[in-house]
Specification:
The complex is a heterodimer of chains A (about 525) and B (about 450). Chain A has about 525 residues and is an alpha/beta fold. Chain A folds into 2 domains: about 375 residues, Alkaline Phosphatase, subunit A; about 80 residues, Arylsulfatase, C-terminal domain, CATH 3.30.1120.10. Chain A contains 14 helices and 14 strands. Chain A has an 8-stranded mixed sheet, sandwiched between helices. In chain A, strands 11-12-13-14 form a 4-stranded antiparallel sheet, covered by helices on one side. A two-stranded parallel sheet of chain A has the order 3-10. In chain A, helix 4 crosses helix 9 and helix 8 packs parallel to helix 9. With about 450 residues, chain B is α/β, with parallel strands linked by helices. The chains are: A alpha/beta (about 525), B alpha/beta (about 450). Chains A and B meet through loops of A and strand 7 and helix 5 of B.
């Protein structure tokens, strides 16, 4: 027996992995609100050879820590989110497309905002205690699950309003509200000041009382809290899943005084400048978190997934123009790429050839991935990588990203993305779009002159026409028909809910051309 | 002569649409500056002795001063509604000041109206609003939903100028909003609005723009800066002293705005309008409508005739006085014509393009008659005749040429004129509809009724 133990110990010295499994990797989802792919100094878009191209917006923003993260990992230039907040957030936590989970609009905390022709049965209530969520599955498998920041995962009267009902051990500052009442500590983040309710009282940020009356900007307070929760997990010897969802850079565009001087002479409108300060404050938070992981000595075992939750809401120009996300067309909520194309970076917080978890998922430094992916893919990726199984029979629309994260193409993955918005009012109303490789079709259920020249259909080839300026619906009838058939098939497969006619009952389904 | 040649250019533009675009004259910017409750006598160019307004005087010297410049209503919100809709506001039932309740979806400029900014935006203009709105506070009535692409200001009818605790429950203390979001402006509000306007002008040196700069000065509350108040220590009446300081702060802000036009090289391609939204109310804010009779809220000249300027160096005459009656409602057609946008024909519009009248292309008066209605108060102007009818009182008739102060009622002396004008007024009234929302007055009446009922 003694000999056997000695042998075991000996073998253990040679191959430590055999004796004790390596610590499980920590996972961070760093989710930025209303940040589009152009709201950064880090160029994502590339030329035909795959080289990143800088555009004027890249020269306006300052995000050095995103550069730092990108240098350690891979960034995607065709990463898609839903066009508004809640649908993307629910997709991230469930792995299902919004067409399937039916939270197809942003959740107005206090009022069902289906819209006049919205599907009456859409999931305004959001997630609940029995929903299958990434956080719940990771918690059950032994992870410390930490929610910091914006929730917006259920109406105020829903269980989903509290992230702790969704499998998060800890919740800091998350609630039903989809925006902060204020970013300013002096304004108590929108909570009453001296008994006077703040503007947008329904958006008052829960918690964070200890920062009331201070000069601590909201993004900073959340960062301090996130770091403290990470400290606790490390102290307790637990792997952690940190879902760090900044309220930034959602409206209101409160200028962050720490960075305002950087944009004062830019010649841009005051709220465009304020937006840039929110971006820079978010970027500082990313840097602070990376520093902290280094200090704790856990950077090499922590995987960071950085992304935006929908297209940019940079307050530049009209929503359907090439402005807010130039050179892409459109803005948050619109049916153009500017409404749904978001930044995505995956990186180990510090590269290490020795870390066994990194060996299983080697992410090339400074790489750019051009293949299409979406918010639906985070759930299956993280579960697959951490070896956690979803319940039997649970339908997942996304697919694991592991091959793409290593910088390789993955021909086995579908090259498609379905975006379904059967609501109004927003920048575009009652539409679905379907992406298949370079092609994108948009279907307008109630076409208007403004959105689509009065037609149901828009068809774009994004490889040749990334700014969606050349509608090919009329000139490519065969392609349009095929794309529309694919869109209808995808909606059917996902059991989508459709807009309704004037009787508020009869579904209005897409018509083939 | 210079004016005449420019005018030919404008006239030729529609004929040349088929030719390359470079033959078209550039479309001008339109800067619409509106003050609030400012009296007819209360600028230097109107003869004020105690309130110097050097910047407005400079604007007057560079353009046209209208001695018979009117607004469409004797108080704020309806006046602004008619201004932006291009038609008498009673045609669409906007005859009251909207009640301040952000959840009330009835109180506001009816959504059936397509406003001037929306039309100019469709024509390719950048459209900005700065200052006071007062055309509805529920989200659908907000300026950004009515055609303005850049907005900063407050939605209610009056606002504190400094040192207030922001609170949406109270219109006068609500946060200032930029594009619908609360924003903190640190300066005195009048100064801040001036700075916002100069910023807008400097940023939009390219595409033509329309800026509606709606100062709430010198409306109550009376909150000038201490520094400015001290300058007017010689004015004995404390209310008038504060009023003078508020006018003076606004004049400085306008001075900065005009300087921004010059330094950015846009002065010669910008048409500037300036007028007050209605007459002054002397006992409330210390204003002065001399020599006119009446005040804000009355159908006499003091309620509806205001300081009124138009300036466009190089295109309009400078330093001249114009006596033909014009109205704030004319901004609409004038702006659309200059923007090359079609004048809508779907409804009855009362707006007249003033440019041909001012350049000499058209002679005669822009308006055959002007009309006013406020509940049971009516007024009509035709030539020099002014008809006033209030409630159950007998109608009054004045000759404004001889009797600007409306002191001598000629109703009995001129029965034929009276009868004719009464018929005209009645015909116009038939075209109008009843108010579509209760407004402040309706809510106050209800509150009073309820409180009486509540008493044992």
């Amino acid at each position: 027996m003694k000999t056997f133990l000695a042998i075991l110990a000996f073998v253990g010295l040679l191959t430590p992995a055999f004796a004790a499994p390596p610590p499980r990797p920590n996972i961070v989802i760093f989710l930025v609100d209303d940040m589009g792919i152009m709201d950064t100094s880090l160029p994502f878009l590339t030329d035909v050879t795959g080289q990143p191209v800088r555009y004027p917006l890249n020269d306006f923003f300052r995000t050095p820590n995103m550069h730092r993260l990108a240098e350690r990992g891979i960034r995607f230039n065709n990463f898609n989110a839903m066009s508004v907040c809640s649908p993307s957030r629910v997709s991230i936590l469930t792995g299902q497309n919004a067409a399937r989970h039916h939270t197809t609009n942003w959740i107005n905390a206090d009022e069902n905002n289906a819209g006049p022709h919205g599907p009456p049965d859409w999931n305004w209530m959001g997630l609940n205690k029995s929903a299958v969520t990434l956080s719940r599955l990771l918690e059950a498998s032994g992870y410390r699950t930490i929610h910091v920041g914006k929730g917006h995962l259920g109406a105020r009267i829903s269980e989903g309003a509290d992230p702790q009902n969704l499998g998060f051990d800890i919740n800091v500052a998350g609630g039903a509200n989809g925006a902060p009442g204020s970013y300013y500590g002096k304004r108590n983040y929108g909570n009453p000041v001296d008994g006077v309710p703040g503007p947008n009282a329904s958006n008052a940020v829960p918690g964070l009382e200890k920062y009331y009356g201070t000069d601590t900007f909201l993004s900073e307070a959340l960062t301090i809290e996130a770091k403290a929760r990470v400290d606790e997990a490390v102290h307790d010897g637990r792997p952690f899943f940190l879902y760090f969802a900044h309220y930034a850079v959602h409206r209101p565009f409160n200028s962050d005084p720490r960075f305002a001087a950087h944009y004062r002479d830019s010649g841009k409108a005051p709220d465009v400048q304020a937006f840039a300060t929110l971006i820079e404050g978010m970027d500082k938070s990313l840097g602070d978190l990376l520093d902290h992981l280094d200090e704790l000595g856990i950077a090499d075992n922590t995987l960071i997934l950085f992304l935006g939750d929908n297209g940019s809401d940079d307050p530049i120009g009209e929503a359907h123009n090439i402005a807010s996300s130039a050179p892409l067309r459109g803005r948050k909520g619109s049916h153009y790429e500017g409404g749904m194309r978001v930044p995505f970076i995956a990186a180990w917080a510090r590269a290490s050839a020795d870390n066994p978890n990194q060996k299983r998922l080697p992410i090339p430094a400074g790489a750019i991935q051009g293949q299409l992916a979406s918010v639906d893919d985070l759930f299956p990726t993280i579960l697959s990588y951490t070896g956690v199984a979803a319940p039997k029979g649970y339908v997942v629309d996304g697919a694991p990203l592991e091959t793409l994260l290593t910088g390789k193409p993955d021909p086995s993955r579908p090259q498609t993305f379905l975006m379904h918005y059967p609501h109004s009012p927003h920048r575009s109303n009652y539409w679905s779009s379907f992406r298949d490789g370079d092609w994108k079709v948009v279907y307008h259920y109630f076409p208007t002159e403004e959105a689509s020249g009065g037609s149901h259909y828009q068809l774009f080839n994004l490889a040749k026409d990334p700014s969606e300026s050349d509608n090919l619906a009329a000139s490519e009838p065969a392609k349009l028909r095929r794309m529309m058939e694919s869109l209808v098939a995808a909606l059917t497969k996902d059991e989508a809910l459709y807009p309704v006619a004037d009787d508020h009952v009869t579904p209005v389904k897409p018509q083939l051309p | 002569m210079k004016t005449a040649s420019c005018f030919v250019g404008l006239l030729a533009a529609p004929l040349l649409v088929a030719l390359p675009a470079f033959t078209e004259p550039p479309r001008p910017n339109i800067l619409l500056i509106v003050s609030d409750d400012q009296g007819y006598a209360d600028t230097g160019f109107q003869g004020s002795k105690d309130i110097p307004t050097p910047h407005l005087d400079q604007l007057a010297a560079s353009g046209i001063r209208f001695t018979n410049g009117y607004v469409t209503h004797a108080y704020c919100s309806p006046s602004r509604a008619g201004l932006l809709a291009g038609r008498y506001q009673q045609r669409f039932g906007h005859e009251r000041n909207p009640y301040y309740d952000r959840s009330d979806h009835h109180e506001g400029l009816p959504l059936t109206e397509t406003l001037l900014p929306a039309r100019l935006r469709s024509a390719g203009y950048v459209t900005g609003w700065i200052g006071k709105w007062h055309l509805g506070v529920a989200p659908e009535y907000a300026p950004e939903r009515r055609g303005f692409s850049e907005t900063v200001g407050f939605l209610a009818g009056a606002h504190h100028y400094q040192k207030w605790q922001p609170n949406y429950k109270s219109g006068v203390a609500a946060p200032i909003e930029r594009n619908g979001d609360p924003v903190e402006l640190t300066e005195h509000l009048t100064t801040a609005f001036g700075h916002e306007a100069t910023d807008f002008i400097r940023r939009h040196d390219g595409k033509p723009w329309f800026l509606y700069l709606a100062f709430n000065a010198p409306h109550t509350p009376m909150e000038p800066t201490a520094e400015r108040l001290a300058r007017f220590a010689s004015i004995p009446d404390p209310l008038r002293r504060k009023y003078a300081a508020q006018v003076s702060l606004m004049d400085d802000a306008i001075g900065e705005v005009l300087a921004a036009l010059r330094t950015s090289g846009q002065a010669d391609r910008t048409l500037v309008f300036f007028f007050s939204d209605n007459g002054g109310k002397p006992k409330v804010n210390g204003s002065d409508n001399t020599p006119l009779r009446g005040e804000k809220g009355t159908p006499y000249e003091g309620g509806i005739r205001v300081p009124f300027l138009m300036a466009w160096p190089g295109r309009l005459a400078s330093g001249v006085t114009e006596d033909r009656p014009v109205s704030s409602v004319d901004v609409f057609a004038t702006a659309l014509a200059l923007a090359g946008a079609p004048m809508p024909t779907d409804l009855v519009y009362d707006s007249v393009n003033l440019m041909p009248f001012l350049t000499g292309e058209k002679t005669g008066a822009p308006h055959e008659r002007l009309y006013w209605r406020n509940g049971n108060q009516f007024a009509l102007r035709e030539g020099n005749w002014k008809l006033v009818r209030e409630g159950g009182r007998p109608a009054e008739l004045y000759n404004l040429e001889r009797d600007l102060g409306e002191t001598t009622d000629l109703a009995k002396a001129q029965p034929a004129v009276l009868t004719r004008l009464m018929a005209e007024l009645s015909a116009w009234d038939q075209e109008l509809i009843d108010p579509v929302f209760p407004g402040d007055t309706g809510h106050q009446a209800n509150a009073k009724k309820n409180s009486i009922q509540a008493k044992p």
